[in-house]
Specification:
There is one protein chain. The chain is of the alpha/beta class. 37% of the residues lie in helices and 17% in strands. It contains 11 helices and 9 strands. The strands form 2 sheets. The chain has a 6-stranded parallel β-sheet with strand order 3-2-1-7-8-9, with helices on both faces. The protein is elongated. The structure holds adenosine-5-diphosphoribose. The site of adenosine-5-diphosphoribose has 23 residues, from loops. Adenosine-5-diphosphoribose (APR) binds next to loops.
Length: 249
């Protein structure tokens, strides 16, 4: 917390009110309260599934059936989840003109389900499957049933249209995210451990372009001591609810 000893949440409200054009960058932490586990930490997905065996493009091409064991859990958990107060607060901040876009690393579609309109899906989305051979796409709910390994009409195994390790970020999402970071007045960084690049570069781009950075996370991250102006230490839903309340939105 570096708010010059002033109450960090009130300082954050002042900054959000002063600085127009706020953008949010979200990670798995914002969806934890919707029942979707994060990736790192003792309860994370990567504690159960070694990401080098289950979450790289190479692993998928080598053993798609094995990788689908992990993906089945992710598709099911995302399919059952509903937006929480944090997702809804961000939608309210957009509706009232405080936040103009959400850049999300999450593939769960919960920002859109909460009503956010400008959502940049930096790591893709679970609601669509893509063929790794002919690139044909299908809605997941039309081609996938629990326990099955979905196939394309061409006979190849389908993968969710999410970015696995070793895959590039969709270029349009990368372009849009960097443009938002370069031109925003304030970046809200919510529920990310900031350990995965290039997503973890977005706060640096924003900071170097003159934006203020407010981090919302119960834990410090590599950003906290370097890029972050105000660290609001708490869960996404409690902090964003307090922010929207204090902003009387
Ligand atoms: N509210 C806010 N933040 C939370 C909450 C909560 N309720 N619960 C946990 N967090 C924080 C954790 O302290 C941690 O810093 O959310 C962060 C989650 O970090 P990760 O699990 O590493 O998730 P993320 O940063 O989104 O991962 C980035 O890595 O595995 C890949 O592609 C995957 O998109 C993912 C990327």
């Amino acid at each position: 917390m570096r708010a010059g000893g002033r109450d960090p949440i009130r300082e954050a409200v002042r900054l959000l009110a002063d600085r127009r054009n706020a953008v949010a960058l979200t990670g798995a932490g914002i969806s934890v309260e919707s029942g979707i586990p994060s990736f790192r930490g003792s309860q994370g997905m990567w504690a159960k599934y070694d990401p080098m065996e289950y979450a790289t493009l190479h692993a998928f091409m080598q053993s798609p059936r094995k990788v689908w064991e992990m993906l089945t859990e992710m598709v099911s958990v995302c399919g059952e989840a509903a937006p929480n107060a944090a997702h809804r607060a961000l939608a309210t901040l957009e509706e009232t003109g405080v936040v103009r876009a959400v850049i999300t690393q999450n593939v769960d579609g919960l920002h859109q389900a909460a009503g956010s309109r400008r959502v940049i899906e930096y790591h893709g989305n679970m609601e669509e499957l893509v063929c790794v051979s002919c690139w044909k796409r299908y809605p997941t709910r039309e081609r996938w049933t629990p326990g099955s390994v979905p196939l394309c009409d061409c006979g190849e195994i389908l993968k969710p249209n999410v970015v696995l390790f070793g895959e590039p970020i969709p270029w349009l999402a990368q372009e849009q995210a960097e443009e938002e970071a370069r031109t925003c007045g304030l970046l809200l960084v919510i529920g990310t451990s900031a350990q995965v690049s290039p997503a973890c570069d977005i706060p640096r781009i924003a900071k170097e372009s003159g934006a203020a950075v407010i981090e919302i996370n119960p834990e410090p991250t590599p950003l906290t001591a370097s890029v972050t102006d105000i660290h609001l230490r708490g869960s996404a839903s409690e902090v964003l609810r307090a922010l929207t309340f204090l902003m009387q939105l």
